[in-house]
Design brief:
2 copies of one chain form a homodimer. Chain A has 5 helices and 4 strands, in the order H-E-H-E-H-H-E-E-H. Chain A has 164 residues and is of the alpha/beta class. Chains A, B: InterPro entries: AGR/TXD (IPR051099), Thioredoxin-like_sf (IPR036249).
């Protein structure tokens, strides 16, 4: 009798401490990196990214992408696997990846498309001068543009107003 | 000789394919949930959350918190462990947790503090009428306020403009 009561109690405890699982099945928690570099510290929002860029006096890289866009996925592969890019971004940049546009028009100098990489100087100036290879989508990159992308990262590292 | 060459080649391949690891050591990838419910689908930004709220005709819960704020952590514990809250939020709400303020003043009707929970109707109306127990911080909740919080979730579920 006591044993039975104990069993019921144990079951009750087990049920009440079970974590919520959606009807559709357990989900893998979403990461902020979304596969663009799990070891980087990603800002969540543009406001947060600007805060850190100003505070740390580091340039900001804003990367617009979509998870169902093949061009984004191709660029993500080479981007995330390039240790030089990952190290430089980790050590010298504030990074943000977004799948939804912000209300700030300065982040879409020639329109809204993906993938699109916009650099922002810690003085809060969008570096519209740092562009890729395509005249109709100036801030787009393809896997073949990795070398140009790397040289653009170096350009963005040279701040507009250097500290004295 | 061939063996030695092969070894060198293997080492080179191993080095070149090694993933980037920060000098400070490997990091655990950040999640969007930040411990507030790993099974919920969190929006990343306010813009994204509004987009989903409108599209799905669901109310939005915006939760402001800080990871080094003991009040936030206490509330997070009861919030994340309550299956009723987790299920309702998962099935009937769009959810967003933020550690940095947005530029939208409507999200801080009585100031910026944490923890703070603001509900937004899919008509884009901030539900400033859904408040907690504290007159000086009307959108703050403590673990003891869980029952009130749950009834506020139910209030937010009743949309301002119901579909015909």
């Amino acid at each position: 009798m006591i044993k039975a009561a104990l069993s019921v109690l144990l079951v009750l405890v087990a049920v009440s401490s079970a974590k919520y699982i959606p009807k559709s099945g357990k989900r893998i928690p979403q990461t902020l990196s979304r596969g663009w570099g799990d070891q980087l510290i990603w800002a969540q929002t543009y406001e947060e990214a600007l805060y850190w860029a100003r505070l740390r006096n580091k340039p900001l890289m804003v990367l617009f992408h979509l998870e169902d866009c093949p061009h984004s996925l191709e660029f993500k592969k080479v981007f995330s696997e390039d240790n030089g890019i990952q190290r430089t971004l980790d050590e010298d940049f504030i990074v943000l990846n977004l799948m939804y546009e912000t209300t700030d028009k300065h982040l879409s100098p020639d329109g809204q498309y993906v993938p699109r990489v916009i650099f922002v100087d810690p003085t809060m100036t969008v570096r519209a001068d740092i562009i890729g290879r395509y005249s109709n989508r100036m801030y787009a990159y393809e896997p073949a543009d990795l070398k140009l992308f790397k040289s653009n990262i170096e350009k963005a590292k040279k701040l507009l107003k250097s500290e004295l």
